[in-house]
Amino acid sequence: MPQLIASVEGVEIKHVYLKSDRTTLGRRPYNDIIFDNLVVSGEHCVFVMKGIADVYLEDLGSTNGTYLNGHMVKSRELLHDNDIINIGNFRIQYLATSQQEEEAPREHQTTAMALDALGLPGTTGTMHASLKVLSGSSAGLEVPVVKAVTTFGQPGVAVVSISHRRDGYYVAHMDGEKPSTCNGKPIGVKAIPLAHHDILNLAGTEMEFLLKNGEA
Question: Sign of torsion, CA 22 5 143 175?
């Protein structure tokens, strides 16, 4: 899930996950992100999300301007991972992807042990899993899957959970009107096993599931 980390003189002041199609930033209290400072206009700028991976930045006619990587934003611009947005003395770092943890179901809590130390035949205990984004502005970004249960996607659009069990990794549908797919087949609420190079599609964003030897 895309996120913004705002700081002033190196001190983090806000950490916001972009969950809506439009996220407004400004001085007025009705904005989604509020910076109560005179350098910030009442309605300063907006972050527009397309799908689950593409986020655009647009200035709303602010007095002091919105700057992206040092240049003034004059039209809607696509953001990329680690872009820096400046508004006065506010510095905002954009991160294209983040992992949202979810408490593991009680019946699976015993699997939180260090499975890579087991190395049981027929399991992925010695393997490290990750998802590689294949489309959109975040193409090429690889996100490790390190928790017992990890969710990926945008709430209300497409969200799947990937769980690490004794016998491998599994994916299941969590949220979204249109089911995500694995190798072109719909992902249901019942978890299905994942294999190396499986292709997941979340609302048009393709991600490749990868398994790598932990010693590599």
Answer: negative
Calpha distance 95→1 (Å, rounded): 9
Sequence-ordered list of residues with C-beta below 8 angstroms from that of 195, at least 6 positions apart, any chain: 209
Q: What is the mean pLDDT of residues 40-61?
A: 91
**Site of tokens 């506010």:** 90
Considering only CA atoms, which of 133, 159, 166, 162 is closest in space to residue 146? Answer: 162
In this structure, the number of other CB atoms found within 10 A of the CB of residue 183 comes to 12
- Residue range 54-75: mean pLDDT, rounded: 95
Residue 137: which of 70, 73, 204 has the closest Cα? 204
Which pTM does this prediction carry?
0.51
Q: What is the pLDDT of residues 183-198, one digit of tens each?
A: 999 998 888 999 999 9
